[in-house]
Amino acid sequence: MKKLQIIYSCLIISILVIASCKKDSVLNQTPPTKLSDATFWHTTADLQNYMNTLYSTFNLYGGFGNLGIYSVDGNSDNMVTPSQNARLNGQNTLNANGGYADYTDIRTVNYFLTNYTKVSGTPNAIAPFVGEAYFFRAMLYFQGLQSYGGLPYITKPLNLNDPGLNAPRLPRNVLADSIINDLDRAIANLPSKGLAQSQRLYKEYAEGYKARVCLYEGTWEKYHANDAFGVSGQNGAHFLQLASDAANAVITSGVFKLDNTGQSNGYFNLFNQTDYSSSTEIMFWGAFSLADNIVSYWQSFFPAGGSTGLSKTLIDDYLCTDGNPISVSPLYKGDDSLAHVFKNRDPRLRQSIFFYGDVIVSGAPGNAPNGLFTYPQFISVTPCTTGFQIKKGFNSDYYQDVHNSAGGTTGVIYMRYAETLLIYAEARAELGLITQADVDMTINKLRDRVGISHLNIGAIPTDPKWIFPELSPVINEIRRERRVELACEGFRFDDICRWAAAPDLIVGAQPLGARANQFVTVIPAISIGNNVFVNSLGYIEPYAKVPGMASGYQFNVNRDYLLPITLAQTNINPAIKQNPGW
């Protein structure tokens, strides 16, 4: 945990860390320089330089040999990592030190908000940077809320011995209100997308982010109402209405629409572009630059990142093209082979998983032929866990692979318009207000992109394998659509937590993959019971020989929805009370 008192006492007020942006990407920072407070706070350029440092809080997902942002779902039931996830298996421990809300960056924001009025400039020139400050403070506190629940809410740059250092945690709903207030101030100050500088924050993105925050807190309060993580007397309706309103503001702004509707491989091609500046769907993204030596390594994830496979439960959630689930659709061909799995299914499935003949290397020097996918990486240093090897986000360009060049430059996506559509549909459904018109402008737009049948909320076929049979058919189908559309983009674990869904999805679950027999005959080195293990039905069981997984995941529903607050923090500030179960 970043200890609040220690962090504040170690910062020197009179020194400001200022970074200037390279080219047009404020997410790409040059090494910081130090300027004295006395020479600062004069022009709006000073404000811009100051705020540039905070853009580094957007994660660029670097690191060799991983899947970048597409590895984040490895903490959920969507993906199966080489080793079991400690949190899913109830293996997290209470440590003396560790992570916490990022009060270092929160203090940086608070220092700006305390001093920006010293600058000379027109209100219109100053306002965008004030809006950015409120957005970053909201984002930092929201990240803390997701991990730890209620937090001390600090709005000024505290100093050593300041009484505020011993502030107690706010109840989570009060903290959420404070986050939303900051986002409202951000929205009021930020320019609209058409007037904002390239890759700087803008009004409609802040509205989309507000919708994300409100949906999270609204559903958390609704589904945790009867456990230790809930908020007494609250049912989430207030935040769900705010989520609906914020998402609707984005939709009715007319600024965005889905990319690639009706195009072959249109869904796949959303996730492998180096420049999203002309996209009508990508609401905010991070750029890389070879010229500035700011590169990512995760474009090289085939085969290096091929070890993490998609789970059978995710694969089974994709509908058939008639809009019906595999449990009832006559179009479903079974799962004896990948070819059968993909046949007549939602095209997003085929566009998210490698299949025989897919291009894995293109544009190599000397007019070399394209490299093609043959079989999942079962026989390698990092074998594929499930046989469903992730393709979403992959860029086959030879020069995007760090093995062949200086590093990749495929952009990293932080928010898509598709998410906003899903937020609106879910919030309306949770409020009991959803109409067919709502579905047509949200869920069915997503289905139109890939060409599958519409959702008709008046005639939803009963799925005997609905994950949440206690909930309404429309909520089940909206949750399914969210899982499929946003698969591997890092949302799933947060969804499980806010829905209090670990008993349905995690506890006792044994992750599975594809049927193994289809690979045995074509990959001689595979030996069932030796280097590939299966369950009684022949599905790959990646953790079959892991002692701690003999009975499936051991997620503790009375503890593991939130991370523990470390001993250092609770010792320094007795007003900080521990999370349930720790």
In words, what does this structure look like?
This protein is mainly alpha-helical. The chain is built from 19 helices and ten strands. It has a two-stranded antiparallel ribbon. Strands 2-3 form a two-stranded antiparallel ribbon. Strands 5-7 form a two-stranded antiparallel sheet.
Task: Report the total helices.
Answer: 19
Average of per-residue pLDDT values: 90
Fraction of residues in helix? 25-40%
Order of helices and strands: HEEEEHEHHHHHEHEHHHEEEHHHHHHHH
Category by helix and strand content: mainly alpha
Uncertain segments are: 1-33
Give the radius of gyration: 24 Å
- Classify the beta-strand content into a percent band: 5-15%
Largest sheet: 2 strands, antiparallel
Shape summary: globular
The termini sit apart by: 15 Å
Count every beta strand, where a strand is a DSSP E run of 2 or more residues.
10
- Order of strands, main sheet, comes to 1-4
